[in-house]
Write a structure and sequence with these properties.
Blueprint lengths: L4 H23 L15 H28 L3 E6 L1 H11 L9 E6 L4 H28 L3 H20 L8 H8 L1 H18 L6
Antiparallel strand pairs: 1-2
Helix pairs in contact: 1-2, 1-3, 2-4, 2-5, 4-5, 4-6, 4-7, 5-7, 6-7
């Protein structure tokens, strides 16, 4: 894949802000105790979020970029600064809604190629989520299992979230291309979520 220096800056910025927003929400930090973000201990949930939510975000966007570039398109990620700021603000109220930006794609592609570009991020999250699930069976250290479970859960939920059948979500574009592919991905997401409920007690 080809990256510009500006795009790398945008990716790192979005990854960092997403990680901090989720860390704030997970830690129960609010406007009243916002000073807790200055504690060195806050780095722990930031790292936790960065390795789960942050990785899920990166894989999703880079999958779109990789497939688009493979079809000869210009594809670069651009952060949405307003939405990143809103994510930080909402996290202080215990609510997270993240729309960090997206991959800008320019070029002429066929309908099936556009569908594959749209589905790439969803499939990437499902693959990554499956690796996290595999790790749950192979590693039995409690702290690491918590990380693996959260990583799996976030990836599967991100895939399902992006299957919302309305623009600008990937689901609308995928549904326009192939109802069968859309249905298969929805079923896979639901099966994996149901499977993950068996690990809620770890």
């Amino acid at each position: 894949m080809k990256f510009s220096s500006f795009e790398l800056h945008e990716l790192i910025k979005a990854w960092f802000v997403i990680s901090v927003a989720f860390a704030i929400a997970m830690s129960g930090i609010s406007v009243a105790n916002f000073y807790l973000v200055l504690s060195p201990l806050f780095l722990i949930p930031v790292l936790f979020a960065g390795l789960t939510v942050g990785i899920a975000f990166l894989f999703h966007e880079l999958a779109h970029k990789f497939v688009a570039q493979s079809y000869g398109c210009f594809a670069e990620f651009r952060a949405n600064n307003q939405m990143l700021f809103m994510a930080l603000i909402m996290s202080l109220f215990g609510f997270i809604f993240v729309a960090p930006g997206g991959v800008l794609i320019h070029g002429s592609v066929k309908r099936d190629e556009f569908g594959k570009i749209s589905s790439a991020g969803i499939i990437a999250n499902l693959i990554l989520g499956s690796f996290f699930i595999l790790g749950l069976h192979l590693i039995h250290i409690a702290v690491i299992q918590q990380l693996l479970y959260y990583g799996a859960y976030i990836n599967v939920w991100l895939a399902l979230f992006n299957l919302i059948p309305f623009l600008p979500f990937d689901g609308a574009k995928l549904l326009h291309w192939s109802k069968k592919a859309y249905g298969v991905l929805v079923v896979v997401c639901l099966v994996l979520l149901f499977y993950l409920t068996g690990f809620l007690g770890i």
